[in-house]
Design a protein that fits this description.
Helices cover about 35% and strands about 25% of the residues. The strands form two sheets. A seven-stranded mixed β-sheet has the order 8-11-7-12-9-13-10. Strands 1-2-3-6-4-5 form a six-stranded mixed β-sheet, covered by helices on one side. The protein folds into two domains: about 1-140, 2-Layer Sandwich (60s Ribosomal Protein L30, Chain: A); about 150-325, Phosphoribosyl-aminoimidazole Synthetase, Chain A, domain 2 (Alpha-Beta Complex). Helix 2 runs parallel beside helix 3, helix 6 (about 190-195) runs antiparallel to helix 11 (about 295-305) and helix 7 (about 210-220) packs parallel to helix 9. The protein is built from eleven helices and 13 strands. It is α+β, with helices and mostly antiparallel strands and about 325 residues long. The chain starts with a helix and ends in an 11-residue tail after the last strand. The longest helix has 18 residues, at about 55-70. It is globular, with a radius of gyration of 19 Å. It has helices spanning about 1-10, 55-70, 90-110, 160-165, 175-185, 190-195, 210-220, 240-245, 250-260, 270-275, 295-305, and strands at about 20, 30-35, 40-50, 75-85, 110-120, 125-135, 150-155, 200-205, 225-230, 260-265, 285-290, 310-315, 320-325. Strand 2 (about 30-35) and strand 3 (about 40-50) form a beta hairpin.
Length: about 325
């Protein structure tokens, strides 16, 4: 990818665009443009092929997934543009359901669909260009973790293996319904919670899986992240689907690409390893806060109705380490 982007980096030198706070340099979840008045415009785009059978759910998940990049940067969504590539053979009522699912999710986020573009394609694809606003001094980036931080996650893992099992007829309706509910859930409240407690670093866990995105954060922050495998939440049925081999190609790619930067303790079993690399769709926020905030943020999460799991800690070093067991008693939750 670095080679592919080289012409852009050669054409648009960062020094020539001082207002572009986040762009083609260090990888992050969205582009950020400084407006010069303490505010920043945050812009992202994301779209993908269907991962569920219901067209309304597909549109809703695609929208939530795109909006998640704004939340991961600490931005509030303002408006979005639809991006659609659809077969002409798709019935109008199916297309309408996809568009309506996305529109309802954008409206739930307090934003508006302002337009879009569509083309014909053999396989459906749908998503958004999403635009938001953030305070320059409260931006969240992948590079803000510090030694001593606790790492939190706001959604369970397993959407990749569950959707793959669905595609091959091996997923139970109950497990699919649970996965869909999580994927349709906006990360808005989670982002608010993180910002209210002074978070500096965040990302959303999507296609690179938990460990892939953690490797990016560790590299950007110049630190090491240590995860406790038993503290990481999983969707019901996810472990079974991983054991049964419902593993997407993206998950295998994640393991091949990011594996060299990850140290997995021998006690961490193969199923867990697969799920930690599992390519997610519309996953949760992963963010860091100082250890001293742990009891307070957990209490506030309950009051705000935000699902929140402490899953790791930040130390000096590099890369990502995964050890067995639950959250250590030396780091009490209360």
């Amino acid at each position: 990818m670095a080679q592919v982007l080289r012409p852009l980096q050669d054409t648009f030198r960062p020094a020539d665009y001082p207002n572009l706070l986040v762009g083609l340099g260090a990888p992050d979840d969205a582009a950020v443009w400084n407006l010069g008045d303490g505010r920043a415009l945050v812009v992202t785009t994301d779209f993908f092929t269907p991962i569920v059978d219901d067209p309304y759910d597909y549109g809703s998940i695609a929208a939530a997934n795109a909006l998640s990049d704004l939340y991961a940067m600490g931005a509030t969504p303002m408006f979005a543009l639809n991006v659609a590539a659809l077969p002409t053979s798709l019935p109008p009522e199916v297309v309408e359901a996809i568009i309506r699912g996305g529109a309802d999710k954008v409206r739930e986020a307090g934003a508006v669909i302002a337009g879009g573009h569509s083309v014909q394609d053999d396989e459906p694809k749908f998503g958004l260009v999403a635009v938001g606003m953030a305070s320059v001094d409260r931006l969240l980036t992948k590079g803000g973790l510090r030694p001593g931080d606790v790492v939190f996650l706001t959604k369970p893992l397993g959407t990749g293996v569950t959707s793959t099992a669905l595609k091959h007829g091996g997923a139970s309706p109950a497990d699919v319904a649970e996965a869909v509910t999580w994927m349709k859930t906006l990360n808005a409240s989670a982002a608010t919670l993180a910002l209210e407690h002074g978070a500096r670093a965040a990302t959303d866990v999507t296609g690179f899986g938990l460990l892939g995105h953690a490797v990016e954060m560790a590299a950007a922050s110049n630190i090491q992240i240590e995860f406790f495998a038993g503290a990481i939440p999983l969707l019901e049925g996810a472990a079974r689907y991983a054991r049964e081999g419902f593993v997407a190609g993206g998950t295998r790619d994640n393991r091949a690409h990011f594996g060299p930067s990850v140290t997995l303790a021998p006690e961490v079993d193969e199923t867990t390893r697969t799920l930690l690399f599992d390519a997610q769709t519309s996953g949760g926020l992963m963010f860091g806060l100082p250890q001293a905030y742990l009891p307070t943020v957990l209490t506030q999460a309950v009051l705000a109705g935000v699902d929140l799991w402490p899953i790791g800690r930040v130390a000096d070093g590099s890369g990502v380490l995964v050890v067995p067991g639950a959250w250590p008693s030396t780091h009490p939750l209360k």
